[in-house]
Amino acid sequence: MSTPLERWVDECAGITRPKAVHWCDGSQSEYDRLVREMLATRTLVELNQQEYPGCYLHRSDPNDVARTEHLTFLCTRNKDDAGPNNNWMSPPEAKEKVGALFAGAMRERTMYVVPYLMGPVSSPYSQVGVEITDSPYVAVSMRIMTRMGKVALDRLGASDYFVKGLHSLGDLSPDRRFILHFPEERTIWSVGSGYGGNALLGKKCHALRIASWMAREEGWLAEHMLIVGIEEPSGRTTYIAAAFPSACGKTNLAMLVPPASHKGYKVWTVGDDIAWMNPADGQLRAINPEAGFFGVAPGTNSKTNPNMMATIGKNSLFTNVALTPRGTPYWEGMDGGPPPEALDWQGRPWTPASGTKAAHPNSRFTTPAHQCPSMSPAWESPAGVPISAIVFGGRRATLMPLVFQSFNWQHGVFLGATMASETTAAATSAVGVVRQDPMAMLPFCGYNMGDYFGHWLRMGTRVATPPQIFRVNWFRQGRDGSYLWPGFGENLRVLRWIVARVHGEVAAADTPIGQVPRAGDIDLTGIDVSRATLEELLAIDRAGWLEAAAAQDKFLEQFGDRLPREIREEQAALVKRLRA
Ligand code: O2Y
Ligand code: MN
Q1: pTM of this prediction?
Q2: What are phi and psi of 101, to 5 degrees?
Q3: Is the pLDDT of residue 427 over 50?
Q4: Which residues surround ligand 2, an ion (CB under 5 A)?
Q5: Which residues are catalytic?
Q6: Nearest ligand to the C-alpha atom of residue 364
C-alpha cells in the first residue's frame, strides 16, 4: 500500500511529466553526484578547490535574482484571512491558472523529491516538509539549508502531516512566475523562479508563511528573527531573538565578534534568520528551523563578519558573485579590494573601470551552519533555548533612538507592529524608502496582520515570564550623513544594556516612547563615541515622533476591524504622551 507522500508524488509526476523521478536520500555521495552533473551542464562552475574546497558558483537567470513579492500570493478561501499585507488569489483560480503552468513542465527534466526537516532532528518543534523540484541546484541547496533526506522520511513515516511544496523552474519568465501559498492545505506552489526565497521552499515559504499560519492555530510563534546567546564573563548566557527587515545586518549581528575591549564575552549564534518560539515551562523557547545560511555576499568581509568568512571557505555554493581569474569568488566590499579583472555575476568580462557591479547586490552564499565558529553548543538542542529578550530593529537615518524598551508586553507588541525601515536591495523594490514592516514580517506573514498582532498579544498571556521587548537602530546618521554609532561588534554594548535590563540590573528613564537608557549606562570605553553623540542617539524628537505616529496610523488603519483594540489604544496613548 502506498503512503500519502508516495500518492502525492505520483500525482505531481502525473501533472508535470518528468523524464525521471529521483528520491533524495540526503547522502554526501548523492550531493557529489548532483554537483558533478551540474558541472557538466555548466549549471555550476567549480571554484579554486585549493582555496575554496567543495565550493561552486551558480549564475541564476538575470531576470531571477531576488524574491519577487508582487508575484507571491496567499491563497486562502476567505480573502480577508490573507489581509491587506498579502496578494491574494482564490484557491480555485490559483489552481486553474498556475496548475496550467505545471502541466508538462518537467518533461525534459528529472523530478527531485526532497524530504526535509525544519528544526533539530529530535525536537518536538521540528516539522517535515517535502519539496518536489526540477532544479538540481535547489536540491543541493536544500541539503545545505535543511536536514534533508532519510532523516526527514524516517520522521514522517506513513503520516500525511507534512508541508507539500511543488516547484518547477518553468521557463523562468517573470510573466509566468508565481509563488503561491495554500496555508489551509499546508501547500506551496512555486513556478518560474530558481532563486533563493522563491525556490528553496523550506525557508521563507514554509518556515515563515505556512508556519506562521500553523503557529497561530497551535499557539506558538514563527518569526523572522535571529537567535543569539550573550555569554558574560561570569558564564551567564542570555538568549535574545531579534527581528530586522531584510539586509539590515541581521546575519552580522547573529555572528557578532565582541570587540577587544570586551574580554570574556562571547556571542553564540543559534540562528540568523528564522526563529520558531514555543511556550514551555513558563517561557518562550526558540529553535532555529534551518541548518544553513543563505547570506548576502556584498559587504561581507573579515571586519563586518569574520565568523561568516570562516564559514564560507568550504562546502558552500555562491550565487551571482563575480569570478576572479584565480577561480575565487569576489563581491563588492570583500577583503582586499577588487581584482584587476574578473567575470561579473553574468559571466561577462569586468574590470574596476567597468562602472558596474561585479557581483549582483543580492548575490548570496549557501553554507552549512555547523561550519560557523560562533555556533552555539545549544543550536541543535531539541528543547530550544529560553528567550529573555525580543528586539525589533530597523534601518532609520533619523528619529529612532539607538535602543529603548517597551513598558510591557502589550506596548512591546505595538513597538513591533509599528516597525519601519528604509528598504534595501534584498527584495525587488525601491531602495532607501521608509517602509512599514511590522516585526520584519510584512513579506512573510502568512495571514492577515491584524490577526497576527492579536496572536502576539495573546502569546504574552500564555507564558508566565514573557521575554522583555526592545527596539534598536544601528543606522542613525548625523547632519553630515555619517553614522553616529559604529555598529558591528560594538553593538554588543547595546546588547549588554538589554541583558542588564532583563536581569533587573540597570535602571532606565521613562519617556513618551518607552524606557530609554541613561547615557552613563551604555559602556563607551574603548570606542570613539562621545557622551554628546550618545545623548543625541538616545534623544527623543517629539515633533518627529508625532509625524511618524500619523504615518503609523495610516498603515494600521488598513487592517480595519481586524486591528486589535489594544494596538489602537497603544497608538492613542503614544500620541497623548508625546503631546503632554
Ligand atoms: O532574495 C532572496 O531570494 C533571498 S531573501 C533572504 C535570504 C536569506 C535571508 N533573508 C532573506 C530576506 O529577504 O529576508
Ligand atoms: Mn530574512
Answers
A1: 0.97
A2: -75, -25
A3: no
A4: 273
A5: 248
A6: 1
